[in-house]
Specification:
Layout lengths: L1 E4 L7 H11 L7 E4 L6 H10 L2 E3 L12 E4 L6 H9 L3 E4 L3 H15 L3 E5 L5 H7 L5 E4 L12 E6 L5 H14 L4 E4 L5 H13 L5 E5 L5 H12 L4 E4 L15 E6 L5 H15 L5
Parallel strand pairs: 1-12, 2-3, 2-4, 4-5, 6-7, 6-8, 8-9, 10-11, 10-12
Amino acid sequence: MDVIRAEVLGMCFGVRDALAAIGDMADPSRVTIHGQLVHNEVVVSRLRVRGFGMTEEDARDEVAPTPAVLVTAHGISDRERTRLADAGKELIDTTCPLVRRVHLAAQKLQRDGYHVLVIGRQGHVEVRGIVEDLDSFDVVPDVASVHRYPHARLGVICQSTTAPRVAAEVRARIERENAHTEVKFVDTTCQPTRDHQRALMELLPNVDAVVVVGGSNSNNTRELAALARSRGVPAYHVGGAADLRSEWFTGCRRVGLTAGTSTLDETVQEVEDALIRLGGPAPL
């Protein structure tokens, strides 16, 4: 069984920058990470061992006991920044600039009089940060959620890790269901997400199955697996090598390998090595 890597896979620059920023901190005990730094269980576990405090993502309304609070790559709302600053917290900001771009686009649409539709996962930390600064909005997770909206102007943006195919499908449905409404679409899907999806699309015709490596709650990793399945290729979302099952690859001659944007290089390598042991030959 041959193992073929996608041309683009794994950690994006935003995640690398966040990890680099936190890696240089001499005194982790004075810092609370505001949610998960990245959606990667291995990274989160290592940060706990180093002594960083962490606020669970569903409990971020609590005030951290440490003097410093680290804003994760997923970002937070301006309202939340103000709340933390008013509580006397020093903010260490590792927000991905491409996420910040989504915030700015949403706020501009609101200033221009649009009801904002956010294509993304309801409750996701990035989406929460976007909508907390909006007064008039809806979150649209999929095509089935689209309906006719009672607003004269609709401004549409995307969670940064939204799959381009999903964004296109939802946008088309919004325009169809609101044919007599002004609809303005701002494409805020980030380039790393696009590159990962493109590379996977190029890989799919050449493999019998795909292994997608990433955190269980990583939106872009889930989307990679969904993309493969939508094209009729079996896809297996794993957190690491220990999750692999030999029976998945019975009859497979070639297996594709890709990974989400918060997946460590070493984790990808461990999965690749395990696949090679399962199948025999070295990878192409």
